[in-house]
Specification:
alpha/beta, D-Maltodextrin-Binding Protein, domain 2, 2 domains, ten-stranded mixed sheet, 11 helices, 10 strands, about 45% helix, globular
């Protein structure tokens, strides 16, 4: 065969492959899609994921299956998605841990560059709570009590890298105290021991604490958003309580593996935006005290947020003496 014929045949073959790939992108999705949650079932990220999966099904036309892959502060599940085929059938719902992992883990098993951002989903404020018989009755008394009894107060968290760990670190830094931190293997056992009065205090997401607060099984002092939370209107913000600028929320974002074709990224983003606009999803997030990030449900906003936060958390952890594991 002449060289010219070989080249022509090769070009035709490549064109055929490209046509097939384009057709596959256009047809996506043709089967169920997996949404990996790198934390245990029943936690706050899992709650957001299940509501989102249901809401995205309408636009995608396929079932979105939530798959829990917990362990090692979320790094196991995140790494799995980073190694998945970039075909749109494996997506990741991950929270602020993307911003903190570079400072908390020497080798998390992934880099943010291993993923294609789709968009922000929700932002969840934190609540500062304590066992129901904790002596302070308001945030001013709480701050005063911790400063005077720091060596006697135990602060629970759900493990290194968990939302409660991040909020607890910020709280101790703001108050200038070092409490006895008690790490648990998850949020559920931490709250169980708080309700059981085995530990003193905890800072965790409204998705975990609202039911306990409204039922009176824990004592609540403040929220960490700049505005009061509609579902907990009587709780003051840390900002209005004298800690100007104190704000920490646990955002959740949707990601796909790196090199996912742009047409598929665009389809998933459209499904995300449709889901966030749905009345049912918004109602569910309102019940959980979460703010739907409709205006930031795009790749640029998610990437910009992570790039901005990585050095901020690195500085805070360094100041607090938190070393990478």
């Amino acid at each position: 065969m002449q060289l010219k014929s070989v080249i022509s045949a090769g070009l035709i073959s490549l064109a055929g492959i490209a046509t097939v790939a384009h057709a596959a992108d256009a047809a996506y999705p043709t089967r169920a899609v997996n949404m990996v949650v790198p934390f245990a079932a029943g936690g706050p990220t899992d709650s957001v994921a299940r509501a989102l999966a249901e809401a995205m099904r309408t636009e995608l036309g396929q079932t979105v299956v939530v798959e829990n892959k917990g362990g090692a502060g979320g790094t196991i599940g995140v790494s799995q998605v980073g190694r998945a085929a970039p075909d749109g059938y494996t997506m990741l719902l991950m929270h602020i841990g993307f911003s903190t992992a570079p400072s908390l883990y020497k080798n998390p098993g992934y880099q943010v560059d291993n993923f294609a951002p789709v968009g922000l989903v929700v932002d969840v404020p934190m609540t500062i709570i304590a066992r129901s018989d904790f002596p302070p009755n308001n945030i001013a008394e709480y701050v005063d009590y911790l400063k005077k009894n720091a060596d006697k107060v135990s602060l629970a968290n759900a493990g290194v890298g968990a939302a409660s760990h991040l909020c607890g670190t910020m709280l101790m830094d703001a108050l200038g105290v070092q409490l006895l931190t008690v790490p648990y293997g998850g949020t559920a056992p931490a709250i169980k021991d708080l309700v059981g009065k085995q530990v003193d205090t905890l800072c965790d997401q409204t998705t975990n604490t609202t039911a306990q607060i409204t039922s009176g099984t824990v004592k609540a002092y403040a929220v960490t958003s700049l505005e009061r939370v509609p579902t907990l209107p009587n709780l003051p913000t840390m900002d209005e309580s004298g800690f100007k600028g104190f704000q920490v929320g646990i955002w959740h974002g949707l990601w796909l593996p790196k090199d996912t074709p742009q047409p598929i990224v665009d389809k998933v983003n459209k499904a995300l935006q449709t889901a966030l606009a749905s009345e049912r999803f918004q109602s569910r997030m309102k019940d959980l005290g979460a703010r739907v990030m409709t205006e930031s449900a795009n790749p640029q906003a998610l990437k910009q947020l992570v790039d901005q936060q990585v050095p901020q958390w690195a500085e805070l952890f360094k100041k607090a003496g938190v070393e990478a594991q």
